[in-house]
Amino acid sequence: MTLLTPDVAAQPEAPEARGEVSRGVRNRLLGGGPGDLPRAADIARCSPYGEDLQLALHLCYELCYRGFAGVPDTLEWDPDLLRVRALLEHRFESALRHDCRHRPNVDEALAALLMEPVDGTGVSHFLMSSGESWHLREYVALRSVHQLREADPHLWVVPRLRGRAKAAMVAVEYDEYGCGRAERMHSRLYAELMADLGLDPAYGRHVDMAGAEVLAASNLMSLFGLHRRLRGALVGHFAVLETTSPPAASRIAAAMRRTGAGPAAERYYEEHVEADAVHEQLVRREVVGGLLDDEPDLAPDVAFGIAATCLLEDRLGDRVMDAWSRGESALRAPLPRP
């Protein structure tokens, strides 16, 4: 088994600011006062999908997970910081609702997720057919922003569900956490995958290298997970991940084998090919179906969650492929050589 470095479970350092808004939030976390926080007018001028706002949201949300080295745990519930987070969230969610205003209903959206085009394009197709080792390393580093806490954001919804939806959600998450075995947790398998590729598997280590598109896709999970009113959207998000994972994982597993990435690198994606094929049926029939049987009024929220997830995943895929098609890195800074 791949040996992980001792600091895999340590708190990360706070990433560097990317503008005035994220600088104000970062300064507050690192010992500044409430006066350092950005003003409402500053946040209103931020691009909702841009580097500055998305990093500021990431800084706020991380306080609900492991936090940052040297940052007091008490700031998770700091009233001034929460007011800023609410403004950031409003800016982000408003943009998503506008951009996803023309969306299909739940059944149509789920059916569309199951359709695999014959001449598929995108990141996983590229990696399978012609991706090189450096492409795989970049992709894995980018995805580590979320994958090292893989199932954590979705657990927020469990106490907000009931009956079939809750039971099925817990059943799927039980697999994500290794069925009670720490060495089989999917976040641990991902860390071992990173080590096989010569990447530092420490939690949060690659945030500074990840662009706004990566942060937005990760922040979406926390936005949906931390708000009870968005429980339907979180279920929609979960449905997208579990439905689209098996074919994409199969392609990336093939890319790992072709490039000789290593056994741990292959194991992570092979695990998802098998497990998520079962999860997909369970999520659609029991999690989504059970939720809508209990709370049919949440159907528009589930559809919104599906649409918002697809929107941000498409933006991320386009950003990565645009860079790679020019022979350029998709990261904000180059990776250290293995």
Description:
By secondary structure, the chain is mainly alpha-helical. Helix content is 62%, strand content 0%. It contains 14 helices and no strands. α12 packs parallel to α14. It starts with 19 loop residues before the first helix and ends in a 13-residue tail after the last helix. The N terminus is likely disordered.
Chain-wise SSE layout:
Layout: H1 20-29, H2 40-45, H3 51-62, H4 79-99, H5 106-113, H6 123-130, H7 133-147, H8 152-155, H9 163-176, H10 186-196, H11 212-225, H12 231-258, H13 263-294, H14 299-325
Helix pairs in contact: 1-3, 3-4, 3-11, 6-12, 7-10, 9-13, 10-13, 11-14, 12-13, 12-14
- How would you sum up the major sheet? none
Radius of gyration: 19 Å
What is the first-to-last residue Cα distance?
Answer: 19 Å
The chain-level structural class is mainly alpha
| Proportion of beta-strand residues | under 5%
Average pLDDT for all residues: 93
State the shape.
Answer: globular
What proportion of the residues is helical, as a percent range?
Answer: 55-70%
N-to-C SSE series? HHHHHHHHHHHHHH
Uncertain runs with pLDDT below 50, 5 residues or more? Answer: 1-7
Helix segment tally:
14
